[in-house]
């Protein structure tokens, strides 16, 4: 039998095929393909005025402006710190939790359900709760500071206080938000390891740690790499988490992220500069692309053969 | 025999060891459970404390001494939370419905129909999956602004009615329906369109429901695009609404009322999640394993 | 309804640019008489299903024409052609009940043919009764055995009274016992309805037992169309001879000299009216007569007792396959030696084929 199946050859078949695709194509071309080209054009148009839709010339000025803008440099610094801390911590923590989940039977479903909750919650809404837990006001130190006090340390305002404290809250919140996805993926990866391998290893007298490093880890390493790569991409695009905790004016709080800088350039009090926004967005994605490629190379090199 | 007793002893230590191990595991898991649940507990707790008693607590209390629903009433009367809810509901329903229509047809064309240029087009689609939203949002913002669609539902909805990923997901699912079913339907006198609605969609119902739920979650929580495209509070969705309430909501720093709003915003999705737990988790893990 | 194929050809373009195109069906030109059950027989991948798909309109022929009765249906789309199709894997709609599956084709009828719900259910019940599944009308396909599902599939194909019923290896997914039972069932249903039926199979025994006529094809090329016994007794070429019959026909390298047929040194048959030269000589297993003085010398390998008959397994240097299998009725079995055996051969069971073309050579 032919695998290609029923052929509706000729113009009619082609016409109906494209007809079914037409709505999707129209939307994608208008809202994805065209903007993708346009963003590059914007980024090279110097002195673009969004009211008159005119520009002075073509060149790299937008890029050099963005790269010299202290707000952008702050955003880059913030984003990198966020990435460097949240990606490894969340991945390792998720791995530990998934391993623990995999070793129990009772209450497993309950734990899994609870752990997934942050995935379906509104980032902005729950961020508000984090802010309240961490902040210090004239009336109250807040819950976290109360605990810090109980441990005999000095309290600190995590929301409007020193930079490291603010960064800490942001990292904690980002990790809290990204954990559900990672736990879910790793638990299903662990569950899909064929139990035959474990049985064989136990008969061979391998210890638990040995089994983990020699069997489990290599078997789920593709998924870990996948999580690291998507984790990097996701963390580089962090934005609403920061807004949720520090409010809309992230530049004032010194907690802006690169994506936040793009949006602020586009719209809001400092907005109206799609050219700067485009340049910043392209710089961001050049960075993300580079890191993803590096990640892929590393994962190819270390992946188990065969 | 002494040897036998040794074995019993060994077994006993092994048992104790594994019991200790299990207990440690449960403690660890329970700890993370608390970390996850605590913010939820805290928001519910704060939302039922009265403003006076909340402000009176120099040290936050873990229980509400005088539980009240006043904050919920305030949340829905003093700020236009109900309006935000309605907007979000309209936005979510229309966007999801439109998207399903668009992607079902597209997925069907890719999975079932044969036409010139199909494989090339599909490669193009896959390439689009790599395009981050942040890159295209700038032009879309300018486009929608120039079309005078800011502060309209149309402007909110239009850019999110297609999803390459969901087309891909559905296409994969459609392709698992055996060819013979299509042939049988053809010979039985069914048109392509009728086959799609009478056979393909019912057979693939589980995946379609999953896609719908995931899209509803996405819509309900969407923040960035609505923020860019609306500055009239009449068109705010809940995410922007919450932000608005936070910045200039209840006049004073009325945390309990704010928390009541947060609970109200979070609750629909939590209920949805508890109902469709398996479908959602399955769908998300499929999303994860696509790569 | 009579089905006529006129120079029907289907060519598939090559998968990649380098590969050559595949001629799946090459110049089929024959007529299937009304009300008959035709077995379309050939090895896997020889284009049988493509023929079927062209007849029901799922594949468009590259050239040639298809007629249902007097109507040229070549360009009629499958949904309007009025054929019924039954698949190997049943292809029942998994989300519909048996009743809904059977009424499905009826819901597509339009205009004058449109039926009310009662009429549809009535027709479905009749079809279900015909295949004896009327008790399962509210089940879903997943809750039924393979045999039951195949009956539903047949009922679904029959319910709209198709002009022609096409069955694509309908028994292949069933276990041996069910296959036998369903085979007889299909025969009965076909007789009862009188619908022209084409039954595709690669199983020659299945085709022999069920068909009024057999069409044998190979690599897209039509070989022979005849009644089953005729195809067996009188194959047109070596391929058809080898494809039909279990155990398979025994093929020897033989030579005709002076109107005498030699296998090696043994002169096995005389009055062979063909010109001298090498030929293929096929002898059916039942064409051997055990004889101490027999002409054909073979070395004995073993004896398989099969109850009624006995199969003698022997070898001969001129035999093309591994062993000669001859079937001797048990009472005639008198073996005198442990390692050799001699046969005479029956003239009617001996077929000669051209050494080059493998076409049948008639010698009487």
Give a summary of the structure in a few sentences.
Helices cover 74% and strands 1% of the residues of chain A. Chain A has 306 residues and is mainly alpha-helical. The longest helix of chain A is centred in the N-terminal third of the chain and has 35 residues, at 10-44.
Describe the SSE topology.
The complex is a heterotrimer of chains A (306), B (291) and C (364).
Chain A: H1 10-44, E1 45-46, E2 57-58, H2 61-68, H3 70-103, H4 108-120, H5 123-134, H6 142-150, H7 163-191, H8 195-203, H9 208-236, H10 240-246, H11 250-253, H12 258-266, H13 274-302
Antiparallel strand pairs in A: 1-2
Helix pairs in contact in A: 1-13, 2-13, 3-7, 3-9, 3-12, 4-7, 5-10, 7-9, 9-13, 12-13
Chain B: H1 2-47, H2 51-56, H3 70-77, H4 81-112, H5 118-129, H6 133-146, H7 153-157, H8 164-175, H9 179-187, H10 192-203, H11 205-221, H12 224-229, H13 238-248, H14 255-275, H15 277-289
Chain C: E1 3-12, E2 22-32, E3 37-41, H1 48-56, E4 63-68, E5 71-72, H2 78-81, E6 83-86, H3 98-107, H4 117-130, H5 146-158, E7 164-168, H6 176-193, E8 196-201, H7 204-210, E9 213-218, E10 221-226, H8 228-233, H9 238-243, E11 250-257, E12 260-263, E13 266-269, E14 277-283, E15 288-290, E16 296-305, E17 309-315, E18 324-329, E19 340-345, E20 350-354, E21 360-361
Parallel strand pairs in C: 3-8, 3-9, 6-7, 7-8
Antiparallel strand pairs in C: 1-2, 1-4, 4-5, 9-10, 11-12, 11-14, 12-13, 14-20, 15-19, 16-17, 16-19, 17-18, 20-21
CATH architecture of the largest domain in chain C: 3-Layer(aba) Sandwich
Radius of gyration of chain A: 25 Å
Give the total of beta strands of chain C.
21
> What number is the mean pLDDT of chain A?
87
Please work out how many helical segments of chain C DSSP would assign: 9
What features would you describe in this structure?
The complex is a heterotrimer of chains A (306), B (291) and C (364). Chain A has 306 residues and is an all-alpha fold. Chain A has 2 domains: 10-59, no CATH class; 71-302, MetI-like fold (Orthogonal Bundle). Chain A has helices at residues 10-44, 61-68, 70-103, 108-120, 123-134, 142-150, 163-191, 195-203, 208-236, 240-246, 250-253, 258-266, 274-302, and strands spanning 45-46, 57-58. Chain A has a two-stranded antiparallel ribbon. Chain B is mostly helical. Chain B has 2 domains: 2-69, no CATH class; 71-289, MetI-like fold (Orthogonal Bundle), CATH 1.10.3720. Chain B contains 15 helices and no strands. Chain B is flat, with a radius of gyration of 26 Å. Chain B starts with a helix and ends with a helix. Chain C folds into 2 domains: 3-235, Rossmann fold; 250-361, no CATH class. In chain C, the strands form 4 sheets. Chain C has a 6-stranded mixed beta sheet, with helices on both faces. In chain C, strand 12 and strand 13 (266-269) form a beta hairpin. In chain C, helix 3 packs across helix 4 (117-130) and helix 3 runs parallel beside helix 5 (146-158). Chain C is elongated and about 75 Å long. Chains in contact: A-B, A-C, B-C. At the B-C interface, helix 9 and helix 10 of B face helix 2 and strand 6 of C.
């Amino acid at each position: 039998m032919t695998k290609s199946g029923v052929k509706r050859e000729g113009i009619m078949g082609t016409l109906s095929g494209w007809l079914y695709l037409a709505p999707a194509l129209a939307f994608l071309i208008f809202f994805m393909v065209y903007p993708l080209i346009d963003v590059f054009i914007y980024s090279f148009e110097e002195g673009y005025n969004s009211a008159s839709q005119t520009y002075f010339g073509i060149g790299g000025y937008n890029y050099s402006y963005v790269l010299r803008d202290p707000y952008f440099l702050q955003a880059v610094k913030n984003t990198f710190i966020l990435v460097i801390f949240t990606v490894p911590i969340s991945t390792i923590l998720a791995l530990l939790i998934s391993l623990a989940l995999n070793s129990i039977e009772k209450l497993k479903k309950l734990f899994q359900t609870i752990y997934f909750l942050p995935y379906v919650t509104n980032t902005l809404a729950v961020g508000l709760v984090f802010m309240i837990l961490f902040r210090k006001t004239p009336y109250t130190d807040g819950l976290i500071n109360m605990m810090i006090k109980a441990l005999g340390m000095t309290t600190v305002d995590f929301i409007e206080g020193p930079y490291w404290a603010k960064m800490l809250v942001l990292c904690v919140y980002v990790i809290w938000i990204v954990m559900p996805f990672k736990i879910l993926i790793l638990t299903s990866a662990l569950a899909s390891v064929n139990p035959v391998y474990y049985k064989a290893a136990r008969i061979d007298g391998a210890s638990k740690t040995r089994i983990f490093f020699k069997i489990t880890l290599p078997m789920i390493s593709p998924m870990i790499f996948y999580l690291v790569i998507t984790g990097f991409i996701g963390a580089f695009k962090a934005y609403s988490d920061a807004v949720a905790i520090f409010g809309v004016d992230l530049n004032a709080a010194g907690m802006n992220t690169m994506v936040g800088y793009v949006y602020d350039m586009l719209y809001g009090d400092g907005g109206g500069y799609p050219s700067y926004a485009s340049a910043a967005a392209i710089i961001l994605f050049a960075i993300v692309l580079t890191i993803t490629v590096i990640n892929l190379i590393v994962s190819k090199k270390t992946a188990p053969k065969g | 025999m002494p040897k036998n007793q040794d074995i019993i002893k060994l077994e006993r230590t092994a048992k104790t060891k594994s019991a200790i191990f299990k207990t440690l595991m449960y403690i660890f898991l329970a700890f993370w459970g608390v970390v996850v649940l605590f913010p939820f507990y805290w928001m519910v707790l704060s939302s039922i404390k009265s403003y006076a008693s909340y402000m009176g607590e120099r040290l936050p209390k873990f229980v509400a001494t005088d539980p009240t629903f006043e904050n919920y009433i305030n949340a829905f009367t003093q700020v236009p939370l109900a309006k935000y809810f309605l907007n979000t509901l309209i936005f979510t329903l229309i966007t999801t419905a439109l998207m399903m229509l668009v992607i079902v047809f597209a997925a069907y064309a890719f999975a079932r129909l044969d036409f010139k240029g199909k494989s090339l087009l599909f490669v193009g689609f896959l390439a689009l999956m790599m395009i981050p939203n942040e890159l295209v949002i700038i032009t879309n913002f300018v486009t929608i602004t120039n079309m005078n669609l800011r502060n309209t539902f149309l402007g909110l909805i239009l850019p999110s009615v297609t999803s390459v990923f969901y087309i891909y997901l559905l296409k994969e699912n459609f392709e698992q329906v055996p060819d013979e079913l299509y042939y049988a339907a053809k010979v039985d006198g069914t048109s392509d369109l009728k086959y799609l609605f009478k056979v393909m969609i019912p057979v693939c119902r589980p995946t379609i429901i999953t896609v719908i739920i995931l899209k509803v979650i996405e819509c309900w929580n969407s923040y960035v695009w609505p923020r860019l495209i609306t500055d009239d509070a009449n068109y705010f969705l809940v995410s922007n609404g919450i932000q608005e309430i936070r910045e200039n909501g209840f006049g004073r720093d009325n945390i309990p009322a704010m928390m009541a709003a947060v609970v109200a915003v979070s609750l629909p999705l939590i209920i949805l999640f508890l109902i469709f737990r398996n479908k959602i988790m399955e769908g998300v893990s499929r999303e994860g394993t696509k790569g | 309804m009579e089905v006529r194929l006129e120079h029907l050809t289907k060519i598939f373009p090559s998968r990649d640019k380098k590969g050559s195109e595949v001629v799946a069906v090459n110049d089929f030109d024959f007529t299937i008489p009304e009300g008959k059950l035709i077995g379309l027989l050939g090895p896997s991948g020889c284009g049988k299903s493509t023929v079927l798909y062209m007849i029901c309109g799922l594949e468009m022929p590259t050239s040639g024409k298809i007629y249902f009765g007097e109507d040229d249906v070549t360009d009629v789309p499958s949904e309007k052609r009025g054929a019924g199709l039954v698949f190997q894997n049943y292809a029942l709609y998994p989300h519909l009940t048996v009743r809904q599956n059977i009424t499905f084709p009826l819901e597509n009828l339009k205009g004058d043919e449109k039926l009310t719900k009662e009429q549809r259910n009535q027709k479905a019940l009749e079809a279900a009764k015909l295949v004896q599944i009327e008790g399962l009308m509210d089940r879903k396909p997943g809750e039924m055995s393979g045999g039951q599902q195949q009956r539903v599939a047949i009922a679904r194909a029959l319910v709209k009274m198709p002009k022609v019923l096409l069955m694509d290896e309908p028994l292949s997914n069933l276990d041996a016992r069910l296959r036998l039972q369903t085979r007889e069932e299909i025969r009965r249903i076909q007789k009862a309805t009188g619908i022209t039926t084409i039954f595709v199979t690669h199983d020659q025994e299945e085709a022999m037992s069920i068909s009024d006529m057999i069409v044998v094809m190979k690599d897209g090329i039509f070989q022979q169309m005849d009644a089953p016994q005729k195809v067996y007794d009188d194959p047109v070429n070596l391929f058809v001879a080898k494809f039909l019959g279990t155990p398979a026909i025994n093929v020897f390298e033989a030579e005709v000299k002076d109107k005498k047929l030699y296998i090696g040194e043994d002169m096995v048959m005389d009055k062979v009216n063909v010109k001298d030269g090498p030929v293929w000589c096929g002898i059916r297993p039942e064409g051997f007569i055990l004889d101490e003085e027999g002409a054909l010398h073979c070395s004995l390998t073993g004896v398989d007792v099969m109850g009624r008959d006995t199969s003698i397994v022997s070898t001969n240097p001129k035999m093309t396959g591994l062993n000669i299998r001859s079937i001797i009725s048990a009472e005639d079995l008198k073996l005198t030696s442990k390692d050799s055996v001699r046969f005479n051969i029956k003239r009617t069971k001996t077929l000669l084929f051209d050494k080059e073309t493998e076409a049948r050579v008639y010698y009487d």
